């Protein structure tokens, strides 16, 4: 069959590559090559056709055999599946039954263990509560005693603090009065000092003015005496300076 297709391909190639005749759809092909290829096709077809006919003749038989084989395989598979499912179901039922029994046993053991634990926990809780109550009573008694001592100590400390506060308040009040008295005394002293300074300034001014007045009178008398002496010298007489000296001395 392969040679048939190969020869046909070669014929198509020859026709496609053949030289065409002008003004027509015909072409010129090599006769010898075409005939040789046709002979090859003629020689190859009988054997291929016989083989194909044999295949067609045996097709129904092969299909029947394949169908019978498939039916047998399906039946065997179904039987095997049924056996497998039955075995699995039986095994599962046995497993479930064993698991249920084991679960019942475990639940019973767990319940017994839990009841035992609850009983022990209840006893331990009662013991702890009793011990805690005893400790609470003891702590409360000590706390009351400590509280009473603390209250007494606090009251004494409070009274002492109040007494100290009153004494400190009195001292501060006394210090305040002393400070105020000191401020008053310092103000009085400052006022006196200012007054003394003003008085001394006035006395000094008065003394200076009096001294300058006396000096002015002395200078005036001296100038008059000097004038009379100069006049006497110019006239040739002797001036009497006694009264002026006396006046000046006075």
Task: Describe the structure in your own words.
There is one protein chain. This protein is mostly helical. Among the domains are: 2-96; 207-232 and 234-249. Helices cover 92% and strands 2% of the residues. The chain has 3 helices and 2 strands. The chain has helices at residues 2-17, 31-235, 242-249, and strands at residues 19-20, 27-28. It has a two-stranded antiparallel sheet with strand order 1-2. A hairpin with a 6-residue loop joins strand 1 and strand 2. The longest helix has 205 residues, at 31-235. The N and C termini lie far apart (189 Å). Keywords: Cell cycle, Cell division. This is Cell division initiation protein-like protein. It comes from Nakamurella multipartita (strain ATCC 700099 / DSM 44233 / CIP 104796 / JCM 9543 / NBRC 105858 / Y-104).
């Amino acid at each position: 069959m392969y040679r048939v297709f190969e020869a046909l391909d070669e014929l198509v190639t020859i026709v496609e590559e053949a030289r065409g005749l002008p003004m027509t759809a015909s072409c010129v092909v090599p006769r010898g090559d075409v005939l040789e290829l046709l002979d090859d096709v003629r020689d190859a077809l009988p054997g291929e056709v016989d083989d194909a006919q044999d295949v067609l003749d045996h097709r129904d038989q092969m299909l029947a055999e394949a169908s019978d084989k498939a039916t047998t395989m399906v039946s065997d598979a179904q039987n095997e599946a049924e056996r497998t499912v039955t075995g699995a179901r039986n095994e599962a039922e046995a497993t479930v039954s064993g698991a249920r029994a084991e679960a019942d046993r475990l639940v019973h053991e767990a319940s017994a263990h839990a009841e035992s634990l609850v009983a022990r926990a209840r006893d331990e809780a009662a013991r702890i509560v009793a011990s805690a109550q005893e400790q609470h009573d003891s702590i409360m008694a000590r706390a009351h005693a400590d509280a009473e001592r603390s209250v007494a100590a606090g009251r004494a400390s409070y009274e002492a603090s109040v007494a100290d506060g009153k004494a400190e308040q009195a001292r501060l009040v006394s210090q305040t009065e002393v400070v105020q008295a000191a401020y008053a005394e310092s103000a009085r002293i400052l006022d006196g000092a200012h007054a003394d300074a003003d008085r001394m300034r006035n006395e000094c001014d008065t003394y200076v003015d009096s001294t300058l007045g006396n000096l002015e009178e002395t200078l005036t008398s001296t100038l008059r005496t000097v004038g009379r002496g100069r006049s006497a010298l110019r006239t040739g007489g002797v001036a009497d300076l006694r009264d002026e000296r006396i006046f000046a001395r006075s």
